[in-house]
Write a structure and sequence with these properties.
The complex is a heterodimer of chains A (about 160) and B (about 350). In chain A, about 50% of the residues lie in helices and about 20% in strands. Chain A is of the alpha+beta class and about 160 residues long. Chain A has one domain: Dynein light chain 2a, cytoplasmic (Beta-Lactamase). In chain A, strand 2 and strand 3 form a beta hairpin. Chain A is globular and about 50 Å long. Chain B has 2 domains: about 190 residues, Rossmann fold (3-Layer(aba) Sandwich); about 110 residues, no CATH class. In chain B, about 40% of the residues lie in helices and about 15% in strands. In chain B, strands 1, 2, 3, 4, 5, 6, 7 and 8 form an 8-stranded mixed sheet that branches. At the A-B interface, strand 1, helix 1, strand 3, helix 2 and strand 4 of A face strand 1, strand 2, strand 4, strand 5 and helix 2 of B. Strand 1 of chain A pairs parallel with strand 1 of chain B.
């Protein structure tokens, strides 16, 4: 598992986004993020403009990871759902497959039950897409187009510009 | 692991600063945060104790801008250095792409350095990483303090594998950027060598992406209402169909359910076999504002969607559960109630007031 890069293409992201926005509509939630367990944001839908989604993704993944440890300590393999209740906004997190977390942020216009129901359905669908992605990245042999030798060299130049004492 | 998103044209890497407590990991990040242009860095997040010791992690996202049309993003994390935070320290290492080991150069800290290094190796091993294959840079920090060990001594004890190293004083910033630049370079090299993909990304590449654009509130790929997307209707229709079919886990349960005799015990026996979610049996456990009970919620929800077979089955299971559980009482309560009833009968029979 350690060497598997997560590589996602437009096609899959479109499928994922469609599923998530459908869920948002059905559950009447505000927004949703799909985060991988390492803390990278995969995609987001809904009203996320006012949110620092990068930080949110890292923190949510951290929160999920620590809950997993807690689960292990009480003899559970993993808690598949996490729910944070606030005064106005609430967060529902559920596990998608092996390595992603579906985060739904909602308020009192809907209920936790609705969100849970739709999130569960969506998580199952998403898990299938991720399985497909995994299968493809395992089977393919072509080199990646995104990170090439040129990429590294260019990055190095940029770094010299940016990181100056 | 390096995350490559062809849709939003992003390459995302995770770099972890590891080392013993008070060796200067957070100081490294603070220095980077203070010196890097504001449009390059995100908000620094520190999950620290009251005394400013890292409790879980510090997090600093950096976006070095568009390279080959890809936004290169780096997420810098630190771990809590203290020995007793190993549980959380290990969690931060998940999915790491490169490690900076920040060692304290003071002689009396050598044991802690060694312990931390072996702890790193052990924690990485638990995630299936080999420390020898992971990009790693060693930083000998606190070189500005008097009486520190020489670089040769430090290398002899901590760097037996001949990894790249830097001398640094993170408080003033010496060596901080050198370390960071090298680890980023190593991570990208590794990603270049190991990344593989399908033949052709199907993205129509938009070269107009500015480096800065990624750090402003990032442009939504799909503005909220999704009509912009061409396929959804067809793509959406398809997943729904597949969504409902292969959900084998709850489906087989309803069949054996009716068999057990309708004693009060089924409450206990039904629960564990069908566990949709922890606490999903209804509102009461979760919040006061969910006035609707779980089962009726699902009914309401299922009327939203096209009533799929799975939902019907699930509803059937829940109806069955609620039908069974609602009228029954806990055995002890039932016994007491029965006794009361009997007593009432005899009282009435013998006219006792």
């Amino acid at each position: 598992m350690s060497d598997d890069s997560l590589i996602i293409y437009e096609e899959e992201i479109n499928q994922i986004d469609t599923l998530i926005s459908k869920m948002l509509k059905g559950a009447e939630a505000k927004c949703a993020l799909l985060v991988d367990k390492d803390g990278h944001l995969i995609t987001r839908q809904g009203f996320t403009h006012s949110l620092d989604t990068t930080a949110l993704a890292a923190l949510l993944a951290g929160s999920f990871a620590s809950t997993k440890e807690i689960a292990r300590l009480v003899g559970e393999p993993e808690f598949s759902v996490l729910f944070h209740q606030g005064k106005k906004d609430h967060i529902h997190m559920s596990l998608v497959g092996e390595r992603s977390i579906l985060v739904v942020i909602f308020d009192d216009r809907t209920t936790i039950g609705m969100v849970r129901l739709y999130a569960k359905e969506t998580a199952l669908e998403l898990a299938k897409i991720f399985e497909k992605i995994q299968g493809q990245s395992n089977s393919s042999e072509q080199r990646d187009a995104g990170i090439t030798g040129d990429f590294t060299a260019q990055a190095q130049n940029k770094l010299d510009d940016i990181f100056q004492d | 692991m390096v995350s490559i998103n062809y849709s939003s044209r992003e390459v995302c890497c995770k770099i972890v600063y590891y080392g013993p407590g008070l060796s200067g990991k957070t100081t490294n990040l603070l220095y980077v945060h203070s010196k890097v242009p504001a449009d390059t860095r995100g908000k620094m997040i520190s999950l620290a104790t009251e005394a400013d010791r890292t409790l879980y992690f510090d997090f600093l996202p950096i976006n070095i801008g568009s390279i080959n049309g890809f936004a290169a993003k780096f997420q810098l994390y630190t771990v809590p250095g203290q020995v007793y935070y190993n549980a959380t320290r290990k969690l931060v290492l998940r999915g790491v792409d490169g490690v900076v080991f920040v060692a304290d150069s003071q002689p009396d800290k050598m044991d802690e350095n060694i312990e931390s290094l072996s702890n790193l190796e052990e924690n990485l091993r638990e995630y299936g990483y080999d420390i020898n294959e992971l990009p790693m840079v060693i930083q000998f920090n606190k070189r500005d303090l008097p009486g520190v060990m020489t670089v040769e001594e430090l290398n002899a004890r901590l760097n037996t594998k001949g990894r790249p190293y830097f001398e640094a004083s993170a408080t003033v910033g010496n060596g901080v950027f050198d370390t960071l630049k090298l680890i980023i370079k190593m991570v990208l090299e590794k990603a270049k060598n190991s990344a593989s993909s399908r033949p052709k990304p199907t993205v129509s590449f938009a070269p107009a992406q500015e480096p800065a654009a990624h750090h402003e509130p990032e442009p939504e790929k799909a503005p909220y209402p999704e009509p912009a997307r061409p396929q959804p209707s067809q793509a959406a229709a398809e997943p729904v169909a597949t969504a409902t079919m292969p959900e084998p886990t709850p489906a087989p349960q309803p069949a054996p359910r009716p068999e057990p005799e309708p004693e009060p015990q089924p409450v206990a026996s039904v629960e564990p076999t069908y566990r949709p979610y922890p606490g999903s049996e209804g509102g009461p456990r979760v919040s006061e504002n969910t006035s609707v009970q779980g089962s009726s919620l699902r009914q309401a929800a299922s009327s939203h969607t096209t009533a799929t077979p799975v939902m019907e089955q699930r509803q059937a299971v829940e109806n069955f559960q609620s039908a069974k559980t609602a009228p029954t009482m806990a055995p002890s309560v039932k016994r007491r109630a029965d006794k009361e009833k009997k007593r009432g009968f005899f009282k009435r029979l013998f006219g006792i007031k």
